[in-house]
Amino acid sequence: MRDRFTRSAIRKDFEAHPRQDMVTLDTAKGLYATPVANNRYTVIWQVLANNLALVKAVVASQLRGESGADLKTKLEKVVAVESNGQFTL
Question: Cα(86)–Cα(6) distance, rounded to whole angstroms?
Fold first, then answer.
């Protein structure tokens, strides 16, 4: 039950303001990160050719004013650990 609530809250926050507090991860690939749910999670997403967002991952986080470079480094580590090295940013 909790998981469904969490997913719903994350989706609602992201869909309402995908570009709010967004951090650029990779301009060439169009990858961005947006904190949601009171900065408890971060949505990693990509802009598609038709200007739609494709969500790549949602990771737990505690963001508190980090620079884009610091955030990118932390997210790379989280994604590598959680995917057992199968995915990289």
Answer: 25
